Every structure is written in structure tokens, then in C-alpha cells.
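Re: the multi-chain job from yesterday

Posting the exact lines I submitted so nobody has to dig through the queue logs.
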Amino acid sequence: MTFQAPELNAIPTQQGDLDDELSLALQAVEQRMFDVVDSQVDVLRDASRHIISAGGKRIRPRLALLSYAALGGTQFDDVIAVAAALELLHTASVVHDDINDHGVLRRGRPSVNALWGRTFALLTGDYIFTKVYELVAPLGSEMNIVLAQATTALVEGETLQAAAVKNRQFTREVYYRIIGLKTAELFRAATLLGARAAGATDSETDALAEYGFNIGLAFQIIDDVLDVVGSPEQLGKTSGIDIEQGRGFASAYETKPATNGHTIEAADPMVSIREHVLNGDALREAYHQAHHFVQTALDQIRFLPDSPAKDELFALANSVIERSA
Amino acid sequence: MTFQAPELNAIPTQQGDLDDELSLALQAVEQRMFDVVDSQVDVLRDASRHIISAGGKRIRPRLALLSYAALGGTQFDDVIAVAAALELLHTASVVHDDINDHGVLRRGRPSVNALWGRTFALLTGDYIFTKVYELVAPLGSEMNIVLAQATTALVEGETLQAAAVKNRQFTREVYYRIIGLKTAELFRAATLLGARAAGATDSETDALAEYGFNIGLAFQIIDDVLDVVGSPEQLGKTSGIDIEQGRGFASAYETKPATNGHTIEAADPMVSIREHVLNGDALREAYHQAHHFVQTALDQIRFLPDSPAKDELFALANSVIERSA
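And the result, C-alpha cells for all chains:
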């Protein structure tokens, strides 16, 4: 897989032109990620590029780029490194998640863990985490502090999730704390950093940050729904892990006593809970909550001057709920 | 375990006084590490403090502090955060190493892996890595770039080691590349950052950096020797892992064909190789090489004006070879 470095132009004010320029910017993000993991140690380079080139929705880079443009940024070049760092941070966490969850499929490919084994997957995740900081180190203290805080939140969210499952304390309250930390804080960082790079005021930056956080909550709820109702083929990753582990939206909203692999009585707990969720209130409640968070997000940015980028932020928010993968 | 925040004074010019002030500064480093891992997520806080408060030689903070003082720095306060970050970087790598190596004893205590299990050990290592960047984020781009490069090197060194063992390519050349990356680059970063914090010139900084790198090579060689000849009680960590895995100085200098767990014929390969090393040339060669690197290190800093801190850098270099734990 090779990339051609795209020539980025000034951000246009017409919708069709924005799409073109955004597409070029996302190509530049891909290239930056691909280039920065060019280790002399073959396995680190190969495993990193394996997971990077498998693609993904790139929602975090999109959020950074669109926030930047919506607040008057004029050159996507200014945010390529930050956008790449945000996606790599997510990618590193995915590589480590697949170790802990024994996930064998990721983005439609075998996981790093499945192909290279646990030791190399752990080191590849560490390596990609490091590249996040290599990318943002030259960009000044604020960018670095925001990224470090988002990383801390991400790791805390993953840990809280594992601890809540282990201690059988997977309540709704804990669930919202988990998804705030493990997902929404990084979405917040994406929109915040995009806004800052555009030179936005504090109040504009705060608004974009709150938009990002709420989109993140909605995104994770739908992710958890898809883990239950989707197939591996559709999602491109191992599905059903949440139910197997007794976590996710369905577990938080179970009307039965808190469930996990040990307490389910059915012959196949996956089938049992899946049917329960599909037939019960949890699915309806999940969409209701996600819709609520999207509306809250949109309310934050209505005051922005109209622009193609603002329209795209609205469209992106709605697509979070409507997606099926 | 609680700390009292020590009051740090100006760095003195008399030897006895330097020892006192260095000791206070190292206490401040301990406190900074302890404070920065104050997560709201219990297991991250507890596991991080478990490994931090188990102690260790703190050689990386010492190198940063002494380099700073030797180049005219006057307030250890200026380098406490960097010194804490250097030690935390090493600590994070140790937590992840113990997952991959199944190390159950570390710094005289059960490893994080042994006490909390693999999932939480992986997340604790990630968490401590993040705290490195939280500590240095406010300190400007150069500090952040140096730390990110040292982290990359560390992860590359660990990976190269695992790959060389797996591919049975553990040659002497590969061995020196490994210890340069996994150990000496972080020592280099320690002395470099200490020098920079003191406002040293480029040539002074380069000299300290080369001193640090060579001390790191010597330190790792002796570490590998101790892994073979030392006991867990003496070292405070699981020993014999290198030989079990077919790596380390002894494996690089084996006169027999490259060895690993699969190819050794003796009833107990540990005993067999250990005796071979103790009776053969490898041990002598190891000390010879370590001594050579220490001399190279000392040659770098002879030109510095005499000071108690310079004397301490000389003493530290020699102690690297003479240590038994």
C-alpha cells in the first residue's frame, strides 16, 4: 500500500469543494500515519501498517478537520499531524484491546494479536502510542496536555470497564462513566484541538468540545448496540464480546440481575441475551439515549455561522446514529 | 506510604552538601511519581503505586539530576518533573516486560502482572506511559521530542530482542543494537535532558548524552550478567529469564551454537548454561566490555570543570560495574 502525498489547497466555502478538500486531507492523514510508523524493526512497521491500512471510519480525524474548518481555519495542513495523532491513539488502544478481549478480527482483517501473537501486539500498541507523542511533541504544550489527558481518560475507561465486569458492578451509572472516559473524551479532544488550531475563542472551543463529547457518547452507545445485533462480517470485527464479558449498553440496561458469562443459565448465553435485547426495551432505550446525546451535541454548535463545514458536522452527528457498521 | 514534600535549596558546591540536596531531590522525584498516578480508578492508582513504591535504583533520575548540577544548574526543582518522567518511562516498560516474560517478582515484590493479572497489568503500563507525557507536556517541544524518541527506542529494543530470539538471530551485533535501543537511549535522554535544563551548550549536552549512552550499555551488560549469576533474592526480580529465553549477554557470547529453550539438550538448560557462562569466557568478556564502555563514558566528561556533581558522575559510572543487584 503506497500513498501519493496530496497537495492541499485553501478550504473552500462551497459544499462540493469542501468534500473534495476534506477527502484530500484525509488522504494526507493516512499518509502521515503510514509514514510515522516506519520503524527499522520489521515487525513494528508491518504490524502497525497492517492495522492502519485496514482502514476504519476515521471519525476522530474527521471531527478535528471539520471543527477546524467550521471555526474559520483555512489550511487543513495545519491539523494533519493532530488528526493523525488522534487516529493513532485510537488505533493503539484497539491493538491493546484485542489482546485483553482475545479479539481475532478487526477492521475486516485478522487482529495484530491474531497474526503476530500477544508479545508483539503489546509492543506494537506501545509503539503506536509513542508515535502519537512524536507527532504532537513539536506542536506546543496545549496540544500535548490535551492529548495526554485524553489518553489517560481512555485507559481509565478501559480499566473501569474491566474492573466493573470483574466486580459485577456494571450499573447504568458506571456505564456512562465508562463510555465518557473510554470514548467521549477522545472525541472531545478531537473537536477541541481542531477548534484551537483554527484560533477559536475559548467559548467557541468549549462549544465544539461539548459537541465532540456528546457525539462520542452517542457513538459508543450505537457501537455497543451493533456489538449485540451486528455480525462480524458486517462490523469487520469480532462481535458479541460485550455480552460474553457482561458489559456494554445491553448489560447496563438489562432488566434482569446484572449478567455475565458466569451467571447466565441458558445453553448459549449469547443467543439468550441477544434475543432478550432485541425483544426488550434496551434497544429502544439505547437509540433514545443516543438520539438525546446527538441533539445535545447539535445544540452546542447551532450558533456557529453557516458554512459547509458546519453542515458536515450536523450530518456527521446524525450519521452516528444511522450507521450499521 | 506517604511523602513529605521536601524543601529544595540551591545546589551546593561542597560534596557533603550535594549528597544531602541530591537526596532531597530524589525524595521529591518519588513524591512527584506517587502524586501523578493518583487515578480515580482504584486499580490503576494501587497498581501504579505498588510498583513505584517498591523502589529501585533510580539511576535515570540520578543521571538527570547530576548532569543538571554538573553543567551549572542551580535548582533541582527545575528537573524534578523530567526526572520523574524518566523513571516512570522505565517503570511502565518494566510492567509490560513482566507480562511478556511472565516475571512474577520485581523490585522484591510480586509483579503487577502476578498480583492484578494480565489485563490490568497491560492497562497499568499504558497508564504509566501516559503519565510520562502528562509530566513533560508543559515543558516545551524539545523535552517532549527527546522523550518520545527514547520511548520509541525502548519499544524497538524490546521488540528486536523478542524477534531475534524468535528467529534465532541473537548474534553479538544484534545484542549491541538491542541494548543500545532498549536501555542506553533512555540513559542518553536522562543526561541530555538534565544538561539542557541547565542551559548547557550543544557540545556540553552532546558530551553528557554520550556519557549517558555508554553508561547505559555498561549497565545493561552487567544487568544481563546478574540475571545469570544472581539469585531472585539478591536481585529482587525473577532471574534466569534471559537464559530461559535465549537472549542477553551470555547468549550473544555463547561459543556453542545460538541457544534457546528448544535446542538445549541438558536435563536443566538453566543449570547447564549458567555453569557454562560461569566457567567460560562470556563472563570475563562481559566485564571487559562493560569496563570499556564506562571508560568511554568518563572520557566524555573529563573536560567539565571540577565539581561535586562531576565527581558523583564518575562514582556513578564505576558503581554500574561494581554493583551486585
